[in-house]
Amino acid sequence: MTAQELSWLALWGATALYAIAMVASAVHLARVADARVAAKKQADGAVTSEGDSATASAGSTSTVTSTGTVTVNDRARGIARATTLIGAILQGVGVVARGIESGHVPWSTMYEYTITGTWVAVVVFLIVQRKRDVSYLAPGVTGFATIALGLGLTVLYAQSTGLQPALQSFWLVIHVSIAIIATGIFTVGAVATVLQLFRDYRDSDTQWLQRWKWLEATPPADKLEALAFRLHAVGFVLWTFTVMAGAVWAEHAWGRYWGWDPKEVWSFVIWVIYAAYLHARTTQGWAGRRSAYLALIGFVALIMNFTVVNLVFQGLHSYAGV
Amino acid sequence: MARLKIDNYAYREVPRLGVSGWLRWTWRQVTSMRVALILLILLALAAIPGSVLPQWPQNAGDTQAFIDANPFWGPLLDATGFLDVFGSAWFTAIYLLLFASLIGCIVPRIGVYWRELHEPVAEAPSRLDRYEPQDFPAPEGARVAIASIGSVLTPDTWSWQKSQTPTSAATEAEAASEDDAQRSGRKWSRPRWWSWLVDYRVRVDERPRRTDDAKRELALSAHKGHIRELGNLLFHVSLIGILLAVAAGSLLTYRGQALIVEGDSFTNAVVAYDSYESGALFDENQLDPWILSLDEFDATFSADGTPQNFTAHGTLIEPGFVGREVEAEVNRPIQVDGAKIYLQGNGYAPRFTVTDSNGEVAFEGAVPFLPQDTVYTSTGVLKVPDVSEGEQLGFKATLLPTEVMAETGPISGHPQLTNPVIYLQAYTGDLGLDSGVPQNVYQLDESQLSPVRGDNGDPLLVRMEMGDTITLPDGLGTVTWESTPRFAAFDLRRDPSLPWLLAASIGSLIGLSMSLFGARRRLWFVAPLNPGAGQKTTVVTAAAWAPAHDQGVREERDRIIEAALGRPTSEAPSPEES
Ligand code: HEM
Q1: Which of A143, A179, A216, B451 is deepest in the core (most CB within 10 A)?
Q2: Is the CB of B36 within 6 Å of ligand 1?
Q3: pLDDT digits over A8-30, tens only?
Q4: Which residues pair with B341 in a beta bridge?
Q5: Which ligand 1 atom minimizes the distance to the CA of B40?
Q6: Pocket test for ligand 1, best of B232, B239, B242, B549 (most atoms within 8 A of CB)
Q7: Rounded CA gap, B342 and B319, in Å?
């Protein structure tokens, strides 16, 4: 088997596993939500223990800890965790094999950027999961990874080529790898922010969200906000570094550190939006929902930078493109 | 939920400035934060057209074409600055306002920070209920408990501050016992300023209990968080530094472009550049007259024509020095006299000899051809004004480095010179060089030229191979293609602001990290000195506060208790982790 075939197979395998993980973690989330609703009712004295056991299906155990949180240990959770982990390992193999196949770091085309970036997002999620129970993020992260990887493999796939002289630089490794890590972290942050908004609107009695019972499985909005902030803070520092390293690289390669090339414009726009988000968090009237929207706008800009800007706008960076 | 929190920097609980002063201060903070936020959002929005519409500084040709193609929108957008967004009045206004707001915000905050540094740690609040307090048994009594908590918090510099009443100045007394020093067992002690920045600062009060004036308690208050605010200030000040460095750079920089053919050399002087521009404060007399000659240009391509490596080998002679060998690659400029010489492009410069109708040499030299595509199909023109007799000669030529036959005709198959061929068209007439208007060396002004025609009356198109000499009809002369050296295009730039820019950028990055990752935490431990009747052991009440995103503070509180008093026997609820 060649490195190319290995990479291809491993990545498709990872995509399939993430799809399974997405379904399993969604099922798990629904169960946690049920158990929480039941626990709440039980605490209200409305439901007997018989009613409770109906919500926990075969093979699952749910426990209510003294602080009132509910953990559900069902098979779906196990499946979700295992498939995500194996998927991440497979994807790691796929990314490394692609690097071996092309003979350089695997992030010089949109395809490579996609496979590496989603991998980082999943790894970031796994790291956060080691420290605390964030299974409520799992459907979002694995869902995103499935779609992004699937699109990457079907739409963006490109044969590996050698690197153009302008891309042969230590700064390519630094600049782009940090950009990818930042993107991965922002992705997980965006998932947390979306949940925060849903949860927030649900808690403030927004009608259509009342039907989404699975939101009970997430922590309250302010806890989600705190998690999202930490992720965004790390992402922002890395993005700041990305922009600076990009300027150093541009200075070396093109003789100017900043030229308002479309890619540079968008990196700047992203940076400013996330800076606005960090400000908004501590500005009266903007903390909470409005700052969350800014974070999501930042994420949209990040995706734009990587898709529309690469494909549509002409610039010095475009040779790194498709 | 603490969602509607006032600006973090207004956290001080005791309004020392008085209520109205405090309100004014808060109001100013809040409003200016809001203004700053709106300006930031505007800045992001305003930058976007700069990536969507063609821009004069980036691509003048496209911009002109855009204006020509859109007779209504083109001139309108041009007049309103949308075709030069980053130089437009409105973009400039936004960022200057932002920086004005930044300075207006940062200066008072530096003052506040400075005063805060010299203030003692605030006393522990008299009620801890708001901070989810937790009780821990202290078998050896309040004093021992508080002292050992203090030494855990600040193992090196534990000092005992006591104040009888909350407002009186704290009196200091060293209480670091031999025991404590041995227990902590540290040899290396951190510099004072460092531990003062990152460690807890501690204060202990002996004060009446809130519930019962007759009884007394010990209250330990520990704060840290200077590093956070310091980082925030450093970050914002560095942003101003970046702006200043960029501004200084644009005044002091110069930039020029020069093209050197293999075997030729270039002397650094304004007139020698193909294009040259400099900032308002740059003095052209500062140009150091060094000489760069291009000895050889290496270009390697893969079999499919993808470029793999470009290296320019040259010799650089600086005044007063012997020449030294230099190399420029795409990502590795040559450094000279505070400037950098970047390798920007390359191509072929075929060398021709042209003789006129008298058989005299009218032109001899290499002519740079501009590559038009990735296989280096290159075009160039040859202007021969100095004919000894008759009309001037001009030539338009296309070079195919590796000629192959396609259905559409001959094309180049590879960028290397494997089968080089030139297609040449000749013109006679007036080249227009005497009109005084500077001409583009890569274009032939055909207005006063007529093509040389062949026997059949059609304009002549001659195919040459390297080394060929062709004879023009009607005794006009001959053209010989001697050889095909390469040329390298260099971009030269000096920007003395770069080190400053780098320093400011690194400063902002450090400041940002300090500010975002530095902890701001408050811990309080309160123990009654004479426990009430019925209470056998002393109980330490511990509480903590940190910003919402910092969930580790409660754990730290418990860790400190455990280190000072041993594992608490009371049942602490298990943490939520799985
Ligand atoms: C050039 C414009 C500005 C940029 C790019 C910018 C960027 C940032 C960023 C990224 C942060 C979060 C990191 C940190 O806490 O240090 C921040 C925080 C902050 N900025 Fe700015 N800022 C700008 C202007 C201003 C202005 C004009 C003010 C004054 C109103 C201001 C006040 C603050 C404050 C008080 C914080 C702390 C908020 C917190 O604790 O999270 N900034 N700024």
Answers
A1: A179
A2: yes
A3: 899 999 999 999 999 999 988 88
A4: B334, B492
A5: 2
A6: B232
A7: 21
